[in-house]
Amino acid sequence: MNKFWLITLGIIAGIVALSNIGSIFGLAVSLLIIYAGVHYYLRSLSTLAKVWWASVAVVGGISAISNVPALIGVAALVALWIIYRKWNGQNVSVVAVKESDPFTNFEQQWNKLSK
Question: Is 63 within 8 Å of 30 (Cβ atoms)?
Fold first, then answer.
């Protein structure tokens, strides 16, 4: 891709990411509240505590739903990461490809057993 287009897309993605930074922070706090609610719900023993922590998780979920525009900001951050990788000439791959031999683990285990 031409450097001009990389710069143009990078500037646009940067502006979008910066404009959604508050929403991204709100989504992170909401996810933290959901995590805390579920964590303490699973650890609580009394019914009252389970109801309390479930309601905390529900409030966090409602808050997370209200921060849906943060997904646009997260997508812009991902686009910035991809543009950065292309600028440096690195391979852009979202899915990690494991190119190892499937029998490597078997051979290691066999060598341990045969010693």
Answer: yes
What residues have CB less than 8 Å from 34, skipping those under 6 apart? 57, 60, 61, 64
What angle, 0 to 180 degrees and rounded to 10, lies between the N-to-C axes of helices 3-19 and 21-43? 60
Condensed to tens digits (0 to 9), the pLDDT of residues 4-57 reads: 888 888 899 999 989 999 999 999 999 999 999 999 999 999 999 999 999 999
Query: Which residue blocks in the chain are alpha helix, DSSP H?
Result: 3-19, 21-43, 47-66, 70-87, 104-114
pTM comes to 0.67
Domain boundaries, the chain: 3-114
